[in-house]
């Protein structure tokens, strides 16, 4: 909703005055007002009322719509995806997690949702050269699973794995943030009930103004409070849709990556029990991309279930002391190029990774 | 708190009046409605409504803290299992809801009793110098076993020599799920805020919910479990307390729902609903008696493993139980 003052629109002084007298001060005030209501309230003809509303609509939207090709191009350039630093994962997601969209990771307890969320909170703070977004993180913790010391551990490991590449570059923009900086760069909201959860989402735009460096919003998990003692399913659907709308508008306005984790629930279909993501059908439409994490024998697997642009597929990954890692041999993130530049030459990087691994082996 | 007081003097009295006139006097009522809805109900302007909603949200939202700040607060203090070898699996943490599950006579209660001792140790010895509550739902509190442990504990934990360990453990008995619901919503909050308790053991959560609900009431059970899980988590966080719920196991179900680390053919009881509520899960398993090579004192080998936790990779440690508690094989020098 626009807080642009009515006086900034191209209206006559008389019209502005009449509007002000009736309490219409911002463009947003007129959002839900019909022509008939306005003409009655301002005591003017319907034609003039319609003209006022049209003028305000034009003026308020032109600020958003008009952009030159150059600025559009620059914006595109700035739209980096957030890399998972795990090649398989990035390939599955088409080069990382896209900004301006809602990405959901679902999984049974212990599948690695929180680990992935913490790893991505580290990655987000890395410079663009390493697949990060050089930005800070808002972490909405509904389950009490965010562990600062585990986050520190992941940050330390990730940093030391990337350090060799960072020192090779010597470029200023490739300098890795220190672990202390990364710890300072995560803002954790510990949420205890669904009212607090709604309140945090309402308050996020204001927080974003104070902290424009925020480039990733994590909600771990969206489901928890909406499953506990929630009997009014209609209200639940409405609140969740509202939350999705708010997150989406925040994401598109500020080019933010939004990461949502979700729990799983059991459903009985044709007499057999199967696991499906919680929160039902309506919520399933709210997310742009949905990835299901699961246990597949001894390893963990991630499957892409819903995406507007990518084929369905699945990959394996593991959670180590250092965080979320690839299971493909010794090729850690240090021997990978960030996904944004490597998706076209997968075979080449794979071969390079193999030789690095071999060389390492010979050294030791 | 009254809405008027929440909004303060910056909001025009007429706006506040319009809200009360429309019956919107409660924070929950307002935050559950969309702005256009409230506009329709109150007849106020959208910007006025948005302003009120924004103010209320800022008031109701928890304050953020950075990860760096969280590191300095004692939100997630570790509590030792009372044995260095067992701690390799990962100590439990305050602020967490922990599930300790295993078959009957696997050693769950023994580990929990040992936690009640270990939590009383000072931080330099792995404890947090706090008291414990032990809730029984199945049998009576194992008094004679506790006395045995308390008698030996000064030798094993020198830091407890000057502490009257039995005075620091409260016990309570709860018979039904309803009683338990009342307990976690009423008695437990006041107990935690006044008595220096930072460890709560519930032995066992499964007994309450497996008995009180019929098979076809699983949806109702899931609701109650979610509510209790949420309440326990909130208490754990607010009072920096570790809440350990002892859980039973069920026979195998075909789906590979849980980590492969779960011992084969049994899965934790209470299903996915409860698993979604907990922060960490430890498995205790009884491994069949070893051959003659093992000393008489440790004829039964048991194993503690971490099945899920946000803070540690999966690990396992073998242990045995004797007169003075649970000992890891590693610490006892048995391989």
Automatic annotation (TrEMBL), chain A:
Residues 326-356 have a biased composition (Low complexity). Residues 326-364 are annotated as: Disordered. This is DNA repair protein RAD51 homolog 3. PANTHER family: DNA REPAIR PROTEIN RAD51 HOMOLOG 3, DNA REPAIR PROTEIN RAD51 HOMOLOG 3 RAD51C. PROSITE patterns: RECA_2. GO terms for molecular function: ATP binding; ATP-dependent DNA damage sensor activity; crossover junction DNA endonuclease activity; four-way junction DNA binding. The keyword Nucleus applies. Residues 78-264 form the RecA family profile domain. SUPFAM superfamilies: P-loop containing nucleoside triphosphate hydrolases (SSF52540), Rad51 N-terminal domain-like (SSF47794). InterPro entries: AAA+_ATPase, DNA_recomb/repair_RecA-like, DNA_repair_Rad51/TF_NusA_a-hlx, HR_Repair_Mediator, P-loop_NTPase, Rad51_C, RecA_ATP-bd. It comes from Salpingoeca rosetta (strain ATCC 50818 / BSB-021). The lineage of its organism: Eukaryota, Choanoflagellata, Craspedida, Salpingoecidae, Salpingoeca. It is found in: Nucleus. Keywords: ATP-binding, DNA damage, DNA repair, Nucleotide-binding, Nucleus.
TrEMBL record, chain B:
Residues 75-249 form the RecA family profile domain. Keywords: ATP-binding, DNA damage, DNA repair, Nucleotide-binding, Nucleus. It is found in: Nucleus. One of its GO terms (biological process) is telomere maintenance via recombination. One of its GO terms (molecular function) is four-way junction DNA binding. Its main location: nucleus. This is RecA family profile 1 domain-containing protein. The lineage of its organism: Eukaryota, Choanoflagellata, Craspedida, Salpingoecidae, Salpingoeca.
